[in-house]
Amino acid sequence: MMPFDTAETCASARQAFGGGAYHRQTPATLPDLLATLPEIAGHLGGDPSDWLIAEISDGNMNLVFAASGPNGSVVVKQALPYIRVIGESWPFPLERVRFEHETLQIYARLVPGRTPRVLHYDPELAIIVMEHLTPHLVLRQGLVEGRVFPLLADHIGSFLARTLFFTSDLFLSTRGKRQLMARFEGNEELCATTEEVIFRGPYAAVSLNRWTTPHLDAAVAAMRADHELKLAATELKLVLRTSTEALIHGDLHTGSLMVSEADTRIIDSEWARYGPMGFDLGAVFGNLLLAYFSQPGHATSYNDRTSYQEWLLATMQEIWETFETELRYLVMEHGGELFPSALFEQPSMAASLINSRLRAILSDTIGFAGAKMIRRIIGISHVEDMETIRDPSVRAQCEAKALAVARSMMIQRHAYRDIHALAAGARSASTGNAI
Amino acid sequence: MMPFDTAETCASARQAFGGGAYHRQTPATLPDLLATLPEIAGHLGGDPSDWLIAEISDGNMNLVFAASGPNGSVVVKQALPYIRVIGESWPFPLERVRFEHETLQIYARLVPGRTPRVLHYDPELAIIVMEHLTPHLVLRQGLVEGRVFPLLADHIGSFLARTLFFTSDLFLSTRGKRQLMARFEGNEELCATTEEVIFRGPYAAVSLNRWTTPHLDAAVAAMRADHELKLAATELKLVLRTSTEALIHGDLHTGSLMVSEADTRIIDSEWARYGPMGFDLGAVFGNLLLAYFSQPGHATSYNDRTSYQEWLLATMQEIWETFETELRYLVMEHGGELFPSALFEQPSMAASLINSRLRAILSDTIGFAGAKMIRRIIGISHVEDMETIRDPSVRAQCEAKALAVARSMMIQRHAYRDIHALAAGARSASTGNAI
């Protein structure tokens, strides 16, 4: 039967577009809006005229404001009907805020405390008001600054294992999974954009593509002529399109993580979709490797960043090991849907299936990580890890090494024995000159 | 954005259940219903009192009537709110008729003339009135009778290539595929039933399971204790659950095919869903192999059926070769979505991707075929190919050989070099005694 969720989904979709009440917020309009929300007004304290509103938009997509009053502060995120950093020439569905809200609710249940607390959701205004995280900073910024986050690997590895397991067929019944999938229906615009900017755009003559020129001109030309590489990109796109392994965050780069010494929070889940587990793992690893290869560009006379590079590789390996250990535990503890005890008396059976799944997830992960590294160096959207390197020839050197490793990660993704082989590959590529 | 189709889907779902106008048809009630449908009344001719209504229900699920008048005849198929051969103790959603109707419309566009023409669709009564196929018979019955259908392989191979290609990511855009998938949402009850009766039920102590006893008692006990086999069944279930490769028929056994010397029609598509291409191919091959192993049970003094067995294997191989050839052609001609010429100047690139896809599809196909063979011999639902063999010891001999081959098909599915290796395996298993 048609799951009830879907009727709801249809309704809330109409609501999200029907209203016409949508208008873009500004620091001038926000106090009036927040004043109508007692819980938030109380949290800020004082009088709306006392509130300080600052726009702190950071990502590519949305408007973000920090609102602070005498007693406290909140973050207000509003989706724009187009991609913020590109403008109205690239319209984009407001409804993405619904997928972000759905995911924040699901994550709050599966990994309590790993996401910002939602204080208010308004589908018509495409607004989510949430907890203001402090003293957190965006992980990517921390990596550029060379800061160590001792709990990061444990938090992320566990977040990945729990959110991917509990939304997958390893745990959910067919009915339960179908009904959860239905709540993410209508996200094809976001799916199509992801597939375009990662798997096609970087290899085609797309006007918004850019790269460190002239240093990387030859490398870019070679990649556009590299059929083996483009075939790997197409195979990976097909995996993303045809796999409904789990509910994935869909954009889990180091800009979607807010961190402090003691805490890690996952934000910006509007790209959530059903897809292969390796897509989320690959986003994390690809961006950690971008940070790794960018470090020489941030070296100073008193810190050559080489030990920090080792921390980055150790973190990547520890994330995988935490994910693997916890996934095995979850399958044994909660895998009864796929491994009913009536069928499998011995847990060893579940273990052998999970071994072959982990093998496949690792290959996907390495391939997706490579694709994400390449697209951030020669595609539309770049990363501060590299962009903040002032000297273009130094930056190009870092980028060229990352591109070389990323290429082999995509083409050879099935050949990496384990996560340590990936770390070793990055380490050996980081020495010497790439161009 | 929420595709418009989905709003429609929600609406028609409500319609299909809201009405309460549903009532079970009988030969007594049908003339009044058909009389209200001018096109059909005209097609039958004469007066409703002249019409002959015969119930011809054959499958497990639905009521089927043949209505004939002076000028012509039609078939009326009505879904029951439970599984017909089991009864009200196993309720089953009437909405499945909507999935059948959706699929019939899609097939009519993609493979004109390969499905019965739909004359009337009534979601409230869960009825489809369709062309009465004559002189067609159910393929399974033809195979029991040892009849040759010279065009069958070409028709089925082409049907599979076209319906699977044009509903897959090899052809559709992300948006187009997502919107087509949305039309099959709400089918989780059918999906869950398929997964239960094929991948779990046969290996568990399910009360409705049956087999030729006592002859197969030991074989059944061995299979229920066979962890390697149950692991393969679980892996295959996971492939079915997580792959959205294409819109599959979902129940393409030889009872879902109506054939004549010159024609082949596909019926009973109510199980349609997005899933792996190999599931439809596997259904065809598994049932052809059941027919193959059943032939000694139908041998007579003047026809030992050995040459007919060779025709069955030749047909299986020709279906695969037709599927493979046509799929390659379709990718080259219409694969621009996945292989934009801006990226792939040489068709050789598309060829190498399709080679790896075909390799994976063949493994899935062989695994699913094996699972379907086993479930038809030791599970809830059996096939006339075997059931019509009177002598239980002869029948058990045929079934035991089929079980042995099916087991290796599931466990060794990645090891079969090509479709001919599968035929060779069946041929060698058919000699000697299995029990």
Automatic annotation (TrEMBL), chains A, B:
A GO term for molecular function: S-methyl-5-thioribose kinase activity
UniProt keyword terms in alphabetical order: ATP-binding, Kinase, Nucleotide-binding, Transferase
Pfam families: APH (PF01636)
Coiled coil: none
Domain of life: Bacteria
Subunit structure: Homodimer.
Family listed: Belongs to the methylthioribose kinase family.
Name of the molecule in the record: S-methyl-5-thioribose kinase
